Amino acid sequence: MGKKNKQFVEKITAMEEDFAQWYTDVVKQAELVEYGQVRGTMIIKPYGYAIWENIKDELDRMIKATGHSNVAFPLFIPESLLQKEKDHVEGFAPEVAWVTHGGDEELVEKIAVRPTSEVLFCDYYAKNIHSYRDLPKLYNQWGNVVRWEKTTRPFLRSSEFHWQEGHTAHATDEDASKETDRMLEVYADLVENYLAIPVIRGRKTDKEKFAGAKYTLTIEALMHDGKALQSGTSHHFGSGFAEAFNITYLDENGKSQFAHQTSWGLSTRIMGALIMVHGDNRGLVVPPRIAPTQAMIVPIAQHKEGVLDKAYELRDKLKEIVRVDIDASDKMPGWKFNEYEMKGIPVRIEMGPKDIENEQVVLVRRDTGEKEFVALSELTDRLPLLLEEIHQNLYQSALSHRNEMTTVATNMDEFKQTIDEKGGFIKAMWCGDLACEEKIKEDTTATSRCIPNSDEKVSDTCVCCGKEAKELVFWAKAY
Ligand SMILES: [Zn+2]
Q1: What is the reported pLDDT for 10?
Q2: Is residue 170 domain-shared with residue 267, that is, in the same domain?
Q3: pLDDT digits (tens, 9 = 90+) for 375-392
Q4: 468 CA distance to ligand 1 centroid (A)?
Q5: Average pLDDT, the chain
Q6: N or C: which end of the chain has fewer CB within 10 A?
Q7: 422 and 406 in contact (C-beta within 8 Å)?
Q8: Which CATH number does the domain housing residue 370 bear?
Q9: What residues sit around ligand 1, an ion, with C-beta below 5 angstroms?
Q10: How far does residue 429's CA lie from ligand 1's centre (Å)?
Q11: Residue 4 pLDDT > 80, yes or no?
Q12: Average pLDDT, stretch 297-322?
């Protein structure tokens, strides 16, 4: 191990040694987050927020491109409104934070700080949907929500987090189904093509679905330590909420009908996925398409005449084609290398007196550490290609890892052995009974992640009870 590597070992815990500590170290050292004053809250720092903003901007563009409008609904929900849909309130009750006072005065009715906003949108839709001409309603909002979590970790589980929540109302069940599918595909597109994280698309079991939903679709990703992370969900509500909130419209024949609704959300949790899928023992690795800085110029021997001028000149030229920055501070180049590796900047560009003489630069890619010399005249062609190669490599590495960490189990001995010794996704058949799903969780701590969109069959019988199997399920320990 070289001198350079040694410095990193001192800085962050190796992931093989203690994955949870490695995660905490990366979050801190890469300057993504700091803990807030109230337990479980987080301060997202400039670099962390810049990454989130790039994710957010891409997703916002996709949400608008699929016909949705952004809105902003209140942070507060009256208690009586939250209680209108029975399953929904039961699902969220343990995590709701309540406002009981306004100034010194006790409120007549408690007010919930939104844990999610279904009921607010339902109340609005009940008042604003009258005719089939009012449909569909395709709304989305960016905001923060509060869920009073018992155990918290930055990005993965926090008492307050940022997200978008889409809420739509449609004339028919079929229209709502199409919307549910469409938005899951938008999430899969974002996560695979911008965050370079392969996902499994599927449906949640009834046990794992959203409180109040007819069904929930999900994208599931596998983290480096073999645990799964639910990365985005899209819910079909049928007419359940519409019936509870009396959201009706007159159809073309003048007959009163219930609306059919969906909701879908993706949150700052995805930052946790990004860290745990691509990160390594040198720190964070940010996929190029969402990296706030795609290339960082580090001048070498910058005190020598002409070096800084050339470096700034290079930056101005590259600014036209990539998100580039320069570190011309008087810190040592070695310190800068460490710093930008820790922050996961996709490419480092080194330029010293010798390079200037030879009319070249050195490109060092963050994902593999490989170096290449590139002529200045070819750099504007080479750099975008290299960023593309890095994206592809990150995606393919994550996919290979997921494939290696996906195991078929046909009985509980195989299931338990895989969970204990290897982790990852387990593909196993299920009879559809809640009892088996609960027993698997109790015996192995693995939960059903999703029923994938495929007809694949790995055996004829349920992995747990041995009765006839209905569906293939992906199981895993999960965040
Ligand atoms: Zn069974």
Answers
A1: 53
A2: yes
A3: 999 999 999 999 999 999
A4: 8
A5: 95
A6: N
A7: no
A8: 3.40.50.800
A9: 431, 433, 436, 462, 464-465
A10: 8
A11: no
A12: 96
